Automatic annotation (TrEMBL), chain A:
Protein name: Prolactin receptor
Protein family (similarity comment): Belongs to the type I cytokine receptor family. Type 1 subfamily.
Native species: Oncorhynchus mykiss
GO MF entry, a single one: cytokine receptor activity
Annotated signal peptide: 1-22
Chain ranges passing through the membrane: 235-256
Coiled-coil segments: none
Pfam families cross-referenced by the UniProt entry: EpoR_lig-bind
Membrane topology: Single-pass type I membrane protein
Comment block on domains: The WSXWS motif appears to be necessary for proper protein folding and thereby efficient intracellular transport and cell-surface receptor binding. The box 1 motif is required for JAK interaction and/or activation.
Database matches in SUPFAM superfamilies: Fibronectin type III
InterPro entries: FN3_dom, FN3_sf, Growth/epo_recpt_lig-bind, Ig-like_fold, Long_hematopoietin_rcpt_CS, Type-I_Cytokine_Rcpt
From TrEMBL, chain B:
InterPro entries in UniProt: 4_helix_cytokine-like_core (IPR009079), Somatotropin/Prolactin (IPR001400), Somatotropin_CS (IPR018116)
Designated name of the protein: Prolactin 2
Organism: Oncorhynchus mykiss
Entry's localization field: Secreted
A molecular-function term among this protein's GO annotations: hormone activity
Lineage of producing organism: Eukaryota, Metazoa, Chordata, Craniata, Vertebrata
């Protein structure tokens, strides 16, 4: 028994593989139709893929039947289109007919049917690639461009209208990565612009029927673009040239209008202006007819050039305005407050503060001091009398307080403070012109308010004519007028600073005594010449100018000595007074009053009535 | 010579000026080539709409239906003999080809209108599709009129004979009297399928006709 079992198993184990090997052959696997395509809508081809073959040689066959027909046909051509394909020729192809296609795989053991596929040829058209693709470089005014032309695939009949193809092309530079695609529609030609000069382009074309699939891309066509200057670059060159041109024009215009541009951008700072100051007139230095008044200026030292010559009435105005503002505009350098301060070393008296702007004569205040202290040459130093001193200040400072010309006068009060017995004035050189201009000055129209003239002997000191020496030997004469305006202003000051007992009088310079002192004599209202001016308003005290000392300082005499003025004059006249003077002198002598107004022009006698006007009530010219 | 001033609406564009055959004053003269181009454009648009509708139907509506028996599809226009290939189409005379076109167009007028009416009441299609169906039916009507004008012009130009005059009778062209039963049995899917095909036929036939008669451009 056991042996039989073993033998059966042995036999079975030997037979089974053989049997099994025979059982591995199965019917073929199921084939599958992959695609059907028609290149021209007249024929078409179907392809399938085989399933497992089942170990046996398997044959495939394709069967089809048309819609609404039961007749089954087999594929007429298995070979034209290659393996596993079926080609339908024109006779067997019907358009707008639905094909039901099935592939059958058959082997010895069986067969297998694929899934059926419905095919309508109209919708499976995929043409071949376009043919004769040509690319050329053409030129126009904008630069070169590519012209691509092609032909439809040979099989597609577009000429009869059976197939309508639309085309598409793509372009790229050889080294570029992405294509640039263009639809060309039904045309068979296309232009490509905006090329890179010197580049190599690749072009490809494909086509598609109006209802179908795209063809494959044609083989690439290469084309080289020649070198050229692109229009864009030339446009930039044009823009650069144009901008440079505009820039040049602008520069030229600005250069032409340089001054006005500068004026616009950097407006000029206005310079100092002098109100009422006529520079032209100042330069000319006219002392003639306008020389109605002159300042009798007292100045400090030799080096000081206080006032320009020929200052006229307008300068008066300038001085008038001096007190109002402290700026230097409108004044000569001699009038400059700061200048004077510098030169005098800043000598100021305590009372200066009470005066407004003791400018002009501030320095002179220092001179006062100097004169007081060290002027030993002053021979005659009369006691300081308030009256006399006062009168002099009144000449120059009629009002202490509120006058606009306060400064002018105020400073002259300082000698009062210093109690100089003798006030010496240094007549600036400007008033007494140099010898060169002496003839000019020699016969001035000397009209002051009183109609009286004063003349001073004038000699130039060895120093720069700062001080005047009243010397007989030189006898240069100079006439100076006193500031009429000052006289006017003296009106205001009449009641202010004068002692009631004092009255303003004109001072007459009678002569210069031996000590070179200007002898002044108060005037009386009568006994004057036709040109006299009556001033009966106030009685003023005049102080006599005793003379000019060596320092060219005008020395004033006390009043009490005025009576002697006539003597001096008489004395003088003997020395060389002119004949015409005599009558006047006689008058002066007899009356002992105020000196007679004389025409000063030819007179060399200082005793002729010259006086310092102190009365502010002088009638105006 | 009968002077016709008709208004041809091709491709949905309205031309205000009447078309005169012989170019009289006040009429806008259109050449035959222009007429053909207009008609062909119109037919192309008609076909594209039908394709869209068919694809929409297959995508959204068919899966919900257990549709079987696709092989037994019958188009109601199957009775109209139409050339199925290029040679067959080229073998036909101009007049016959024109006649085929007109027959097709006439055959589809009512079914499309019916289809549109059915679509409004059904949930299968959205509003956009129903608008397309409406436009489709309208286009068929317009295209037919356009082709008739082309045929008239060709007859006037002597290109075709006057055998087409019999086509204008509605009984000869209207297949509904013969196939009324078939058109009713057609399902929507079959209708769309059939119309898509027939619109393609019309377009193709017109192109062949044009390239045969006026082959200036596009052929």
């Amino acid at each position: 028994m056991m042996w039989r079992d073993v033998g059966v198993t042995l036999i079975l184990s030997l037979i089974l593989p053989v049997v099994a090997q025979g059982a591995r052959h199965t019917p073929p696997g199921k084939p599958k139709l992959t695609s059907c395509r028609s290149p021209d809508k007249e024929t078409f081809t179907c392809w399938w893929e085989a399933g497992s073959d089942g170990g046996r040689p398997t044959t495939y066959s394709l069967f089809y039947h048309k819609e609404n027909s039961e007749t089954v046909y087999e594929c007429p051509d298995y070979h034209t289109a290659g393996a596993n394909s079926c080609f339908f020729n024109k006779n067997e192809t019907s358009i707008w007919v639905n094909y039901n296609i099935t592939v059958v795989a058959t082997n010895a053991l069986g067969n297998n049917f694929s899934d059926p596929v419905d095919v309508d040829v109209v919708y499976i058209v995929q043409p071949h690639t376009p043919e004769n693709v040509t690319v050329g470089v053409l030129e126009d005014e904008d630069g070169p461009f590519l012209r691509v032309s092609w032909e439809p695939p040979r099989k597609a009949d577009t000429r009869s209208g059976w197939i309508t193809l639309i085309y598409e092309l793509r372009v790229k530079l050889e080294e570029a990565e992405e294509w640039e695609e263009h639809r060309a529609g039904q045309q068979k030609m296309f232009n490509i612009f905006s090329l890179h000069s010197g580049g190599v382009y690749m072009v490809q074309v494909r086509c598609k029927p109006d209802h179908g699939f795209w063809s494959e891309w044609s083989t690439a066509s290469y084309v080289k673009v020649p070198d050229y200057i692109p229009r864009e670059r030339s446009m930039w060159i044009l823009i650069a040239v144009f901008s440079a041109f505009i820039f040049l024009i602008l520069t030229w215009i600005i250069t032409l209008n340089r001054s006005s541009v500068k004026h616009c951008l950097l407006p000029p700072v206005p310079g100092p202006k002098i109100k009422g100051f006529d520079q032209q007139l100042l330069k000319k230095g006219k002392p003639e007819e306008d020389l109605l008044v002159e300042y009798l200026e007292v100045y400090v030292n030799e080096k000081q050039e206080l006032m320009p010559e020929g200052k006229d009435l307008r300068d008066v105005g300038c001085l008038k305005s001096k007190s109002q503002s402290d700026n230097d505009s409108g004044r000569g350098s001699c009038d400059s407050h700061t200048l004077l301060m510098e030169k005098c070393g800043g000598v100021e008296s305590k009372d200066e503060s009470s005066y407004e702007e003791p400018e002009l004569l501030q320095g002179q205040a220092g001179s006062w001091e100097r004169l007081e202290r060290g002027d030993s040459q002053v021979v005659d130093t009369p006691d300081s009398s308030d009256a006399r001193v006062k009168t002099w200040p009144l000449v120059f400072s009629p009002s202490i307080h509120g006058s606009s010309d306060n400064h002018h006068y105020g400073t002259l009060e300082m000698p009062k403070q210093h109690s100089t017995s003798e006030i010496t004035y240094s007549v600036p050189d400007h008033l007494f012109p140099t010898s060169t201009s002496f003839p000019h000055h020699h016969h001035p129209e000397y009209r002051d308010s009183l109609g009286e003239y004063s003349e001073y002997r004038h000699s130039r000191s060895p120093s720069t004519g700062v001080l005047y020496h009243w010397e007989a030997q030189h006898h240069p004469q100079a006439h100076s007028n006193f500031n009429i305006r000052n006289l006017e202003r003296q009106k205001e000051a009449t009641g202010l600073g004068l002692p009631p007992s004092r009255s303003m009088e004109y001072v007459e310079v009678q002569k210069v005594n031996q000590e070179n002192q200007l002898v002044l004599k108060p005037l009386s209202s009568h006994g004057r010449g036709p040109s006299q001016v009556q001033f009966g308003r106030a009685v003023v005290d005049y102080s006599k100018v005793n003379g000019v000392n060596n320092d060219n300082v005008l020395l004033l005499q006390r009043q009490r000595e005025m009576a002697e003025a006539g003597q001096y004059c008489d004395y003088r006249e003997k020395e060389g007074a002119e004949a015409e003077r005599y009558p006047t002198q006689q008058q002066g002598k007899t009356t002992k009053d105020g000196p007679v107004a004389t025409q000063l022009q030819e007179s060399t006698c200082l005793t002729t009535s010259g006086y310092v006007d102190t009365v502010p009530t002088m009638p105006t010219f | 010579m009968v002077l016709l001033c008709v208004e041809l609406r091709g491709s949905g564009s309205a031309s205000a000026a009447p078309i005169c055959v012989h170019g009289q004053a006040g009429c806008h003269f259109l050449s035959l080539a222009d007429l053909f181009d207009r008609v062909i454009q119109h037919s192309a648009r008609m076909h594209s709409i039908s394709s869209d509708l068919h694809s929409e139907f297959e995508q959204y509506v068919l899966p919900s239906r257990n549709h079987i028996g696709r092989i037994n599809r019958h188009c109601h226009t199957a009775t109209i003999l139409t050339p199925n290939g290029k040679e067959n189409a080229q073998r036909l005379a101009r007049e016959e080809l024109t006649e085929v076109i007109l027959k097709l167009l006439v055959a589809w007028k009512d079914p499309l209108w019916q289809f549109h009416q059915n679509m409004v009441h059904q949930d299968d299609f959205n509003n956009f599709s129903s608008n397309k169906a409406l436009e489709m039916s309208y286009m068929v009507h317009e295209l037919r009129k356009g082709v008739e004008k082309v045929a008239d012009k060709m007859q006037h130009l002597g290109m075709i004979s006057n055998t087409l005059s019999g086509l204008s009778s509605p009984e000869a062209l209207d297949p509904s009297s013969d196939t009324c039963g078939e058109s009713q049995a057609m399902s929507d899917h079959d209708l769309l399928y059939c119309f898509r095909r027939d619109s393609n036929k019309v377009q193709n036939y017109l192109k062949i006709l044009k390239c045969r008669i006026v082959p200036e451009n596009g052929c």
